[in-house]
């Protein structure tokens, strides 16, 4: 069954289409990821589905209800975390969950949610005394207080340390196991690959590709990557001379060569570097990743 249906969604700001005819579906019980660089239109798309913005045209249904007609009913059935949560600073974590729970006909135990999010020791702490990461986890607890069928998590692990991030992954995994639908945006490729059943990559207001993480990689790459570090001042474009190189990308100071004949290319690379008296460090082979797909489709890294 379909949890979200989007058809030809359009939203324009000052003559620019932030969302330009977007269409996709999200099935009940799946974790669906929407990825895109800054300014891609993903936040506007999510906010339309959350009922925070109105689309100019197109169709958006959430849990079988029309976003335009049934917005109030939909909000009773979904949970939302925003990129930047503004919480009431003088309430305690427990009081804030009690308050949000009172907005719904049915709510979960605040103490249970605080325990699930690793905040049980902060139940009586005022929100203003919590760290940024703790406030982010509290925002996720607030999104779950009404036991929603569908949860929108907009960059939920931003600001969390690695341990807290993995703890939240376990919470999201628990939602998945009990059949909840999760709509996730994130700037962490590892997070998207690990959690999402399907991913849509968006840029300039349009969906560029959509599939499982593995399907996206297989559809975009038949080649493998040779990654290495070069001496300072060397132009990566020089490696286009190496036989078998299809494409060159620089990645965190490294050079990545893509080849469908990786053994031939690697051998030729070593011979070419020796002839140039150039030392290449930390050479290793790897398969294409979701990050590679993202860069290939958008020309940018996810945080650009």
Explain this structure to me?
This protein has 304 residues and is of the alpha/beta class. The chain has two domains: 216 residues, Rossmann fold (3-Layer(aba) Sandwich), CATH 3.40.50.300; 66 residues, Alpha-Beta Plaits. It is built from ten helices and 14 strands. Strands 6-7-8-3-9-10 form a six-stranded mixed sheet, sandwiched between helices. Strands 2-1-4-5 form a four-stranded antiparallel sheet, with helices on one face. It has a four-stranded antiparallel sheet with strand order 12-13-11-14. β1 and β2 form a beta hairpin. α8 packs across α10. The chain is globular, with a radius of gyration of 23 Å. The mean pLDDT is 91.
Q: What fraction, in percent, of the residue positions are helical?
A: 25-40%
* CATH T-level fold name of the largest domain: Rossmann fold
Radius of gyration: 23 Å
> How are the strands ordered across the major sheet?
6-7-8-3-9-10
**Overall pLDDT metric:** 91
Main sheet characteristics:
6 strands, mixed
Query: Uncertain runs with pLDDT below 50, 5 residues or more?
Result: none
CATH C-level label of the largest domain: Alpha Beta
What is the first-to-last residue Cα distance? 35 Å
Secondary-structure-based class equals alpha/beta
Content of β-strand: 25-35%
Give the CATH H-level superfamily of the largest domain: P-loop containing nucleotide triphosphate hydrolases
Tally of separate domains: 2
What is the number of helices?
10
